[in-house]
Amino acid sequence: MNTPLRLSPIHDLLQSLPGNWQAINGMPVLTVSPPTTSPLILTDRSCLTRFGVKGANAADWLASQGLTIPDRPNSWCPLPNPSAGIIARLGLSEFLIEDSLSSRLAPQLAMACQTPPAKVYPVLRQDLAIALSGPATHELLQQTCNLNFRALILADRPILLTSLIGVVVTLLPGEHNGHPFYRLWCDGTFGNYLWQTLVAIATEFGGTITNVEL
Amino acid sequence: MSEAGLHQPFAKSTLPQEPLTDRPSRRGDRLPPMPHEWIDRDRIIDFTFEGTHFWGYAGDTISSALWASGQRILGRSFKYHRPRGILSFANHDINALMQAGEKLNLRADTTPLEPGMTLAAVNTIEGVHNDRASLLNAFSPFLPVGFYYKAFHHKRLFPFWERLIRRISGLGQLVPTTPRIRTAKRYDFCDVLVIGAGVSGLSAALAAAAAGADVALVDENAQAGGSGSYQLGGELALAETTHQLVQQVMHHPRIRLFTQTVAAGYYTDHWVPLVDRDHLTKMRAKAVIIASGAYEQPAVFRNNDLPGVLLASAAQRLIYRYAVKPMHRAVVLVANTDGYRAAMDLLTQGISIQAVVELRSDPIANPWIAQLRSHHVPIYSGYCIYEAKTNPAKDGVCSAVICPIDARGIPQTGFSQAIACDGILMSVGWAPTANLLYQAGAKLRFEPSLQQFVPDTLPPGIFACGRVNGVYEFAEKIHDGQNVGVTAFEYLNNPLPSNSCPLSRLPSFTPPPLHPAPFIPHPKGKNFVDFDEDLQYKDFIHAAQEGFDNIELLKRYTTVGMGPSQGKHSNMNALQILAQITGKSPGEVGTTTARPFFHPVLLSHLAGRSFTPKRQTPLHSRHGALGAKFMLAGQWQRPEYYARSHSSRIDCIQREAIAVRQRVGMIDVGTLGKLEIRGPQAAEFLERVYTGRYANLKGGMSRYALMLDETGVVIDDGVIARLGLDHFYFTTTTSGAAQIHRELTRWNTIWQLDCGIVNLTGARSAINLAGPHARHVLAQLTDCDLSSAAFPYLAVREAIVAQIPVLLLRVGFVGEWGYEIHVAAESTPALWDALMVAGAAHDITPFGVEAQRLLRLEKGHLIVGQDTDGLTTPREAGLAWAVKSDKPFFIGQRSLEILAKQPIQQKLVGFRLDPAFQATPPQECHLVIEQDEIVGRVTSVAYSPTLKQFIGLAYVAPEMATPNHRFNIRLSNGEIVTAIVTSTPFYDPDNQRQKETIAHPSQVAA
Questions:
Q1: Residue at B582 is within a domain
Q2: Are residues B123 and B16 in the same domain?
Q3: Of A83, A104, A123, which residue constitutes the final position of a domain?
Q4: Which chain B residues touch A145 with a CB distance below 8 Å?
Q5: Same domain, A161 and A188
Q6: Domain end position, chosen among B607, B627, B656
Q7: B827 interaction partners in chain A (CB closer than 8 Å)
Q8: A181: distance to nearest CA of chain B, Å?
Q9: Given pLDDT bands bounded at 50, 70 and 90, which one contains residue B146?
Q10: Contact B306, B397 (CB under 8 A)
Q11: Residue B1005: pLDDT above 80?
Q12: Is residue A167 packed enough to be buried (19+ CB in 10 Å), middle (13-18) or exposed (0-12)?
């Protein structure tokens, strides 16, 4: 059997794109370098490892694992160096931890939570995780979501739970090289629809939205 | 206050009396360049109109280019097919709708000219000049007001009128090959939205932005400036001031200017749809300033619809925006100072004014009167235009018949005289563009000094300035706009909770811009009030006489204001006519309701991109590669069956079902709702929400679960598996997953039990491996002991299959030995591929939803939602065995206790048709008939290749639910098919197939 044990929710949609495939965290990933002038870049980040946990004691349990957790709902903070991953507080008592390429904290937490303590409930995360970046990002979001993203104060490290083209998504707004940079997570079963729709709109902006980079 | 001498017209002999029959040359109708004109004279655009070649400049509209070329008839009226030209030139000339290829109903007055356009008017037979349908004009006496009601009231004649009206109605020719145009909808946000970029709107935007607000300014015109750039009275300095305001706005960093954009409605919380050529933008503002101005209103006199009879503002737009001469010799009908301004604008451009006809007998003095007199323009005060005369070519005006009018508004026709002209301007008043204010909840009152409805109270965050606020003069509009702009900014920092926003001060004295009764009766009629619907003055008189003397009733009976322009130049006149008839004031008559959208919006804009979320399992592409025909199950795309060449749909489905019965099949059931619950009170929670018992469920085992709502109706079912003392994993139906999770979360919030629910529907997928060879296939991929003793029916095991951690549930939904394999979504393709390889030797066959439905039907398993409906209780569905009524509590228990005391109305039974049955079989939802009464319906039916007969489930009357009872099913074509009640399961009633020694399928058929 040659099928990898991990496949991105949009794995099949990327098959026809040019680029190099390599395995990252056991998942085949198409890697290319997008043109720096691209008005919009969509990146599949599903290969990153992540872990979810919820429950009244979830915050205490994460703290007991040595993590500094965001002090208020709907916000995030970076994982301890040198990870550069993030821990997001999705509500009063629900958390998402996503590793960077270089860290493996999420699998460790999942292992530690196999027999969870009282009021701690692990959440299996099998998201489509993508990033939207480039100067046309806000135009894409204006056509797909009814939130006023320009009003966000990035210094507050907000996390947004909203609806994008009818799909429930979690959004982490940020900036990269002076342009908007949004991380987005959604239920992987909506992945093909979400990705295809976003790519179709982004293509209208004249961007080179054909490749995935990491 | 009047000016001496105004009452005496110039001597009749000084006026030219001969009718004008010469058509102006094309060159002669284009004026010298105007300051800040909208056309680009360096770019010529060629186009055709009804087969004739024309040209215009870039920036022209279709109407301005045609008018500049001497084309006066631009379309035909809707009902009588009368020739029509420019009326408002303000996006309301709906008698000048054009078709350009696939594009229907282009408004010629505002649609920009494009190279190569091939245009034709939409409402003609053989063109605007020789419209054969103009014959209807002669039949107008037979088309009285309320014609539709009177015609359709007669039952016998209804079909005749319906056919006739369907044949002659409809605008334009639909081109069926028109491609679907997908336009993006956008969301946008601002602090202050200013609607209308006229002088007051520009000033308001600048003031709000200067105070620090993020401002969006929208205007439906191609350029900002509004009336400040064309209603000049010959004073070009006003246009220059307006231009400077526009420049300031365009360069202000906090103002975004959207031109050619209509604010088409107002919705709660300051949501305003902005419609431009390509988009519908949903703008959310913190405050809205409505500076939408006013619509100029026509005067009502005979033949006021002839091409060449224009609203004064239309002529001014033609002159200053497009440098087009509206006419060569004009008669100007005035009833306010704006009319004199318009006359001066004509005069300034070298257009001869044959007469100014002043409706008022005692007009307010203004500086333009003396200027007109100095140019020897005769001014007839206390006069009206009694009639416009058509020219011999019947494409325009040749003279205006004027006469004195008495204090009661009666024309003194004995003193009439004809004044030769080729155009008539009407400047008798304005109606506020208050639609958005009404939609926002503003209260308006009628202000007699203005003869206009003005804002009385405004909702929080809504502001008004300019003409819609009753402010008409240039300098006052600037002041009004500035005042409101600052107030709106202050509101941002200190929002007021109720209707207490201050209004701008009305000017201390303004002459009424609207004449209270600018309508002149004529015995021959054709004095139009509504140009959309060809409604004449007499129609309103008759409607009132027939009892429709309420403004809302009048609207519906006459259809005034119900055409494409939605009454923008007819509602006010209708209101005034009704006020005159009933002896009420306009304020007492009131206005009709203004609803969004107040301007037509393209359906493509409303549709947008049509986002329809679809869910696909991780195996979607594999199904596609296997030839799956997909069907929608809620949001999910599922394989209905796998197509094979040279095989019908039914053959494919039966082949898949047989494979499961005889060998092994595999179906993607990743769409099932999948939830997990942990905690000391998890079992307690499940016992409350499901009808069964779960506290006594052994670890490693599963049990059927039935969920009711509080009325005792079946809403969902699934399987609950106990993974640990405080740990359960359970499934829901495919379509119910999201709402069941939401409902369970709600209950847990109420009950506050010590447990937590996690929705794993998307994160986990599932494959059902079923058939007598299923165990052999799975055994190749796992070390888990699959023997019946170690892994009995309904057991649950956590295992490793093909190196993948999975949860195995031994279930039998399709009636065979089988495993539901639940797995992390990302590993599902690997698991599927492994099973396909391992099953190859057993000819493993993927099967779709239809085969699964057939297999479960053979087994007598019902599907919630298909075999139940919104009223089905467990007793009716034969599920009473799954209800443990002796529990202390479960949702729906109390209702079931009440229902238990009552007889049931229907009962779900199995049925079969005679094995020899060969005719058209019944279908789902066909009715069960007993003595001509409906007593039930079929919920499932299929041909069983295993049982070799049609089987099904149906609701029947309880007394019919005995084995071998025969009942009738009525087919769609009325034929009756006899069915026989049969006990279920049809197949393997003793569950032999779940035992170690498996019998052949033919041996276990009931």
A1: yes
A2: yes
A3: A123
A4: 187
A5: yes
A6: B607
A7: 5-7
A8: 19
A9: confident
A10: yes
A11: no
A12: buried
- Whole-structure pTM value: 0.88
Interface of A with B in 57-96 (CB under 8 A): none
- Output the average pLDDT for chain B: 92
Closest CA to B273 of B562, B596, B602: B596
Residue A152, in any domain of the structure: yes
pLDDT digits (tens, 9 = 90+) for B66-91: 999 999 999 999 999 999 999 999 99
pLDDT given at position B5: 39
- Quick check: is A12 in a domain? no
Residue A6 belongs to a domain: no
Contact across the interface for B615 and A189, Cβ inside 8 Å? yes
Instruction: Note down the domain range covering B577.
Output: 527-607
B274 and B411 belong to one structural domain: no
Write out chain A residues lying below 8 Å of B278, CB-based. Answer: none
Residues B441 and B590 in one domain: no
Distances (CA, A) of B636 to A145, A190, B232, B820: 22, 9, 63, 19
Do B232 and B346 reside in the same domain of the chain?
Answer: no
> Which chain B residues are closer than 8 Å to A12 by Cβ?
620-621
Predicted confidence at residue B157, as pLDDT, reads: 85
Q: Please determine, for residue B9, whether its predicted confidence score (pLDDT) is greater than 50.
A: no
Interface test with A, best of B270, B725, B758 (most A CBs within 10 A): B758
The pLDDT of residue B190 is above 80: yes
Specify the pLDDT at position B998: 58
| Residue B139 pLDDT grade (very low, low, confident, very high; cuts 50, 70, 90) | confident
CB contact under 8 A, A193 and B614: yes
Q: What number is the average pLDDT over the span B719-726? A: 97
| Whether residue B746 sits in one domain with residue B881 | yes
Number of domains in chain B: 5
Measured distance CA(B677)–CA(A121) in Å, rounded: 9
Residue A207 lies in a domain: yes
- For residues B321-334, give the mean pLDDT: 97
Q: Which among A11-25, B161-175, B446-460, B954-968 has the top mean pLDDT?
A: B954-968
pLDDT grade, residue B981 (50/70/90)? very high
What pLDDT does B25 receive?
Answer: 41
Whether A143 and B185 lie within 8 Å, measured CB to CB: yes
Residue B80 resides in a domain: yes
Same domain, A174 and A70: no
Same domain, A88 and A62: yes
Quote the domain boundaries for residue A170: 18-46+127-211
Distances (CA, A) of B903 to B655, B706, B876, B900, B907: 43, 22, 10, 7, 11
Shared domain check, A163 and A151: yes
Q: Is B440 exposed, middle or buried (0-12, 13-18, 19+ CB in 10 A)?
A: buried
pLDDT the model gives residue B514: 77
**Is the predicted pLDDT of residue B340 greater than 80, yes or no?**
yes
Looking at the predicted structure, is the pLDDT value of residue B274 above 60?
yes
Residues 157-196 of chain A whose Cβ lies under 8 A from any Cβ of chain B: 165-167, 187-193
pLDDT at B174: 87
Nearby residues of B865 by Cβ (< 8 Å), 6 or more positions away: B733, B735, B736
Judge whether B830 lies within some domain. no
Do A165 and A192 belong together in one domain? yes
Q: Using the beta-carbon criterion (under 8 Å), do A201 and B621 form an inter-chain contact?
A: no
Most B-contacting residue of A96, A113, A126 (CB-CB within 10 A), to test interface: A126
Sequential DSSP letters for A138-207: HHHHHHH--S-GGG--GGG-B-EEEEETTEEEEEEEEEETTEEEEEEEEEGGGHHHHHHHHHHHHHHTT-
Query: Which positions in chain A touch B829 (Cβ < 8 Å)?
Result: 3, 7, 11
- Separation CA B924–CA B602 (nearest Å): 40
ipTM for this model: 0.97
B145 and B280 housed in the same domain: no
The CATH number linked to A100 is: 3.30.70
For residue B544, the domain's CATH number is 1.10.10
Whether the predicted pLDDT of B477 surpasses 80: yes
Range list of β-strands (E), B92-246: 97-100, 103-107, 118-121, 185-195, 215-218
Expressed in angstroms, the distance from the first to the final Cα of chain B is 105
- What is the CATH number for A164? 3.30.1360.120
